[in-house]
């Protein structure tokens, strides 16, 4: 963790893919800075009546994940629900629970029932940094959209059209995890809704490669010359530099557009935010919708969402190049593995075996039935 937004805290593939998608969205918005109508016309966005931008009608986003997302969608996946005998799984009461990731691994554990506030000094003292599972984060995207708070300055939420799993697809578990368990959500601001994407497995499931989760994350988007490898232990790239998808880098992209594009939030020089947290807080409807998500989980008896310490977002835009460092920075979540010198860089075989993408179009043979609207 880093108090200047330089570290990527969560390197699970879904999370990396979404952050990379944010870069793509900034690219597309930046086209609207152009004087040339042809360039503007190539963007996936068009101007919206009343301010801001909207996706062109033919543009949809699909999420492909090589296996069930960690947490609620995956934990029960090997066990289907027997329709005749009912649900007899020994741990069935835990279904739907919010879960946090364990550091440097793929596993998750249920959130503490008492509610828990993470503090900055606690983490600096060595407390484990808690991050919600990918199943929980995807459920949240199904209400708040995949664009995050900053981009809501310029657009309404963008929802996933489909989520396709390469293996461990189970319609009950996946639909519960990504939207059904918060079907009782209430009081959402008008712009937001509970999105129920098309869910499916694929006709020839990917062979799974059990084993320890890799300690690196790879990202690239269309038009990138090369991929970037993030050390999952430090949240930075080789040499300690910041990643192009860390908060600081994306804040920089946001501030480049601030006040220069049509917006939904009436941006002006006088309202220019200094801190990343201020820019996020300025989109009040997004913040309200986020509270609705937390309450929906709580009301359903599924636990309290564990948020990161507020200090994490209280940083300004940085002008300096981050220090070159070979060891994790103070405050980063260093682990013994880095100290042991285990390689964080993938071989070509490993890269070709990684198969997660957030793509503009997807053409697959879906064997799964549409489960929309069953909760
Ligand atoms: Zn995950």
TrEMBL record:
Gene Ontology terms for molecular function: double-stranded RNA adenosine deaminase activity; double-stranded RNA binding; tRNA-specific adenosine deaminase activity
Domain A to I editase: start-end pairs: 1-315
Keyword Cell membrane: no
Enzyme nomenclature, EC number: 3.5.-.-
GO biological process: adenosine to inosine editing; RNA processing
Enzyme class: hydrolase
InterPro entries for this protein: A_deamin
A Pfam family: A_deamin
PROSITE patterns: A_DEAMIN_EDITASE
GO cellular component, one term: cytoplasm
Keywords assigned by UniProt, alphabetized: Hydrolase
PANTHER family with a match to the protein in the record: AT07585P-RELATED, EUKARYOTE SPECIFIC DSRNA BINDING PROTEIN
Protein's name in the database: ADARB
Taxonomic source organism: Acanthosepion pharaonis
């Amino acid at each position: 963790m880093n108090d200047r937004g330089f570290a990527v805290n969560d390197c699970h593939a879904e999370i990396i893919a979404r952050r990379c998608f944010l870069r793509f969205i900034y690219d597309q918005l930046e086209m609207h800075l152009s004087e040339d109508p042809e360039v503007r016309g190539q963007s996936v966005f068009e101007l919206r009546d009343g301010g801001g931008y909207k996706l062109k009608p033919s543009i949809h986003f699909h999420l492909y994940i090589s296996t069930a997302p960690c947490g609620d969608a995956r934990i029960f996946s090997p066990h289907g629900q027997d329709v005749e005998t009912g649900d007899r799984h020994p741990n069935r009461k835990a279904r739907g629970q919010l879960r946090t990731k364990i550091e440097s691994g793929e596993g998750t554990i249920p959130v503490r029932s008492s509610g828990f506030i993470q503090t900055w000094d606690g983490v600096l003292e060595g407390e484990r940094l808690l991050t919600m599972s990918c199943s929980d984060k995807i459920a949240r995207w199904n209400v708040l959209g995949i664009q995050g708070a900053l981009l809501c300055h310029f657009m309404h939420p963008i929802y996933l059209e489909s989520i396709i799993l390469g293996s461990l697809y189970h319609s009950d578990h996946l639909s519960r995890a990504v939207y059904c368990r918060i079907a009782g959500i209430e009081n959402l601001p008008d712009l937001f809704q509970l999105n129920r994407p098309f869910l499916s497995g694929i006709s020839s499931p990917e062979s799974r490669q059990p084993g320890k989760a890799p300690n690196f994350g790879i990202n690239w988007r269309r038009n990138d010359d090369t991929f970037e490898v993030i050390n999952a232990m430090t949240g930075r790239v080789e040499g300690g530099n910041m990643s192009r998808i860390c908060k600081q880098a994306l804040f920089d992209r946001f501030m480049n557009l601030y006040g220069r594009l049509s917006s939904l939030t009436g941006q002006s020089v006088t309202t220019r935010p200094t801190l990343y947290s201020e820019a996020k807080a300025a989109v009040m409807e997004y913040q309200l919708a986020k509270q609705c998500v937390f309450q929906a989980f709580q009301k359903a008896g599924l636990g309290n969402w564990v948020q990161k310490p507020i200090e994490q977002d209280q940083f300004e835009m940085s002008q300096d190049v981050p220090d070159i460092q070979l060891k994790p920075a103070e405050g980063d979540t260093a682990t013994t593995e880095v100290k042991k010198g285990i390689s964080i860089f993938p071989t070509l075989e490993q890269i070709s075996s990684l198969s997660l993408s957030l793509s503009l179009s997807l053409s697959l043979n879906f064997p799964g039935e549409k489960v929309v609207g069953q909760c």
